[in-house]
Every structure is written in C-alpha cells, then in structure tokens.
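USER:
I wish I could look at a protein chain and see how it folds. I am handing you a single protein, as its sequence and its fold in token form. As I understand it, each token names a local backbone shape. I hope you can help me see how the letters and the tokens relate. The protein I mean follows directly.
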Amino acid sequence: MTYDHIQLLSKGGKTSFKNLCLACRSCNELKSDYTEAMDPLTGETAPIFNPRTQIWFDNFKWSPDSTKVEGLTAIGRATIVALRMNNAVIVVARRR
C-alpha cells in the first residue's frame, strides 16, 4: 500500500491526514493526477471515487464470485476503469 493524496498536490491539495488514503501502488500510479474519468456506460465524465466523502457500498459492489468490483454509479464505473481495478492479476489474486 502507498499513501495517496485525494486532492492532488498538483491541484492544491495538502499533505494532511484528511487528504490522504491508502491505495495499492498500481491504483495510485494509474490515478496519476486525474480527478475524473469517463463512465463507460454513459460516455460522460465523472469524478473518481473519494474515500473521505463517499461511501464505497453506494458506488461499488462485488461480483457474485467476489473477484471483480462492479460499479453501481457513474463514479464507481469511471473509477473502476481509470484505476483498472479488475485487471487480470488482481482478479486472480482475489480468486485465491
């Protein structure tokens, strides 16, 4: 796990407890300085999930076999695509 700035330093965010969360290295690197991504269902831009202000279960659910994260909202779907949350390596690890 790595520390991730929710409000990016490059966009005025601070290094403070309220602005940090834990993220896997891959997700953190893929997020880069993006705060929005495209919702694959609507084709519209949506903000990336903010773990400090949004509730995970409002935006995501687990697939029936618990190996994939599924988006319930535009925020969830856009975040899954932007962070490649269901890449083959992580799906195999979840299956184990």
Remarks:
- The chain has four helices and six strands.
- The chain has one domain: 2-95.
- The CA atoms of residues 3 and 53 lie 17 Å apart.
- The two ends are 19 Å apart (CA to CA).
